[in-house]
Write a structure and sequence with these properties.
Layout (H helix, E strand, L loop, with lengths): L6 E5 L4 H12 L3 E6 L2 H10 L4 E5 L5 H15 L4 E4 L16 H29 L2 E6 L13 H20 L5 E8 L5 H4 L5 H8 L10 H12 L10 E4 L12
Parallel strand pairs: 1-2, 1-4, 2-3, 4-5, 5-6, 6-7
Helix pairs in contact: 1-2, 1-8, 3-4, 4-5
Bound molecules: nicotinamide-adenine-dinucleotide.
Nicotinamide-adenine-dinucleotide (NAD) binds next to helix 1 and helix 6.
Length: 254
Amino acid sequence: MRLDGKVALITGAGSGIGRESTLLFAAEGARVLAVDVNEDAARATAADAEGEVSVFRADVSSDADCRGMVEACEERFGRLDVMFNNAGISHPADDDAVTTTEEIWDVTFDINVKGVFLGCKYGIPAMRRAGGGSIINTASFVAILGAATPQLAYTASKGAVLAMTRELAVVHALENIRVNALCPGPLNTPLLMQYLDTPEKKRRRLVHLPMGRFGEAHEMAKGALFLASDDASFVTGTEFMVDGGLTAAYVTPE
Ligand code: NAD
C-alpha cells in the first residue's frame, strides 16, 4: 500500500476530489482526517471508506478552525504527514472585472487562498514535528490559462495558490517538506456541473478538451496519491497538470 503508516488531512472531503481522495488514501493505508465545512457530507465520505477515517468540521477560511483541524489530527493520529489543501469554491456571481463585487472577490479569496495559507500555517509546524511531509494545494488549469467564461476572482485565486505553492516549496525544501499544486482540468463534479447545466454549455466547454470528456474526481485523487506518496520523493514546486491535455491544446482534434 502506497501510504502505509502515513497520516493525511484532506479538506473539502465531503464531495468531489476531496471525497475520492479520502477513499483512495484510506484504501492505500493512510489514516485520514476528513475535513469539510459540511460535516454531514464528510461523515458520508467516512462511512464509505475502507480504512481509518476520522471527521472534523472546519471552515478553512477561519484561523481558529484550521488550527483546530491540525490539533485534532495530531491528537487523534499522533502526527501529520500529508496535508491536502483542497477545499475551494467557485461562486455563482463571480464574473468579469466590471460585474464581480468586492464581496464575491473577498469570499473567494478567503476560502481559496487564505484557506491554503492557513492550512500551511498550522500544517507545516506539525510536519516539522513529524520529520517532513507532503503538502498538496489544489489550484486549477485556470491558473495557467485565461478562462473564456469570466470568473475573475476564481482565476486570480488559483493563480495565487500556484505562486504560493512555488515559494513554499523552495522555503521548506531542506525541511523535507514537499509542496506541489494539483492543477485539475474541468471536472464532472458539483463545483462545475452546477453551471454547465445544459448540453450546449457542456459542449462549449468540451471543444477545448483533447480527450473530449470531463475529468473525474477519482482521476484527480490518483494524481494527489502520487504527490502524497514517497514515489514523488524528488517532486516539489510543480504545477501538476491532470487536465486531459487541455493546457497543451491549440485546437482540439476533430
Ligand atoms: P466540490 O464542490 O465537489 O467539493 C468541494 C468541497 O469543499 C465541498 O464538500 C464543500 O463543502 C467543501 N468546502 C467548501 N467551502 C469550504 C470551506 N470554507 N471550508 C471547508 N470546506 C469547504 O468541488 P471539487 O470539484 O471537488 O473541487 C475541489 C477543488 O478542486 C477546489 O479547490 C476547486 O477549485 C478545484 N478545481 C475544481 C475543478 C472542477 O472542474 N470541478 C477544476 C479545477 C480545480
